[in-house]
């Protein structure tokens, strides 16, 4: 998207609501491929269609033979302490993430069979304009719901090398992870991903060093795009959810968007400025499927999910 082009109508509508500081109560899921959507019927239709999106063929993965022997290094308590709330079905947040899951799976299925020497359609990039917008919260909950009841393994990758990342929150700063993965992906594909309390969800920590500056320096040498490609190729039948740094503070998210099948930009209700959203959309424009997710809307109010692609 050039500097002079405006975002597509559905995405622009969300930007305008955020810029105006309006709440999202009663708003439907925004789908640019449909002329209009009614809020409750649209949600019911999404829920009805979702099982179709989950009907993926069984597959052979380097994770599968080891699943029953892989200890749950990340417990359910740790997941919930760090924001995993979407699995609680009575929570409004869970409903919103199920809508996001439906669209992610829908696009993933549509991309099956498409051959691109560069694009890794199994990568779902999650980022935000600035730190603190809730991207890690979104990545964690999306990965958990994708794994819940699904037929595919889900690999949650922490690629936030310099931030207060999921790796640190899970107490895994000393564990090998993404930064080591690029050295010998075939040998490490079965050992680096750590099991979680959710059956089909595994976690790849940042790796490298417990020191943030050392990790950042090492990441610059290893090239995050190559690391993400190595993970996607090693688990080509899995969905790889990448929690990337904020795209206005580091270039990593922009690099990964050049190979990702889809990207989700998490923006914070009442905080993220319109200029930041538009600048972020420009940086992620190379990704064919780009979505906006509103985070931290007031209680009892619906979040917004808009997508382009």
UniProtKB/TrEMBL annotation:
One GO cellular component, as annotated: plasma membrane
Coiled-coil stretches noted in the UniProt entry, renumbered to this chain: none
Any one GO molecular function term: protein tyrosine kinase activity
Region Disordered: start-end pairs: 26-47
Compositional bias per record (Low complexity), positions renumbered to this chain: 34-47
Classification via InterPro entries: Bact_polysacc_biosynth/exp, P-loop_NTPase
PANTHER family: FERRIC ENTEROBACTIN TRANSPORT PROTEIN FEPE, TYROSINE-PROTEIN KINASE
Protein name per the record: Uncharacterized protein
Organism: Acidiphilium multivorum (strain DSM 11245 / JCM 8867 / NBRC 100883 / AIU 301)
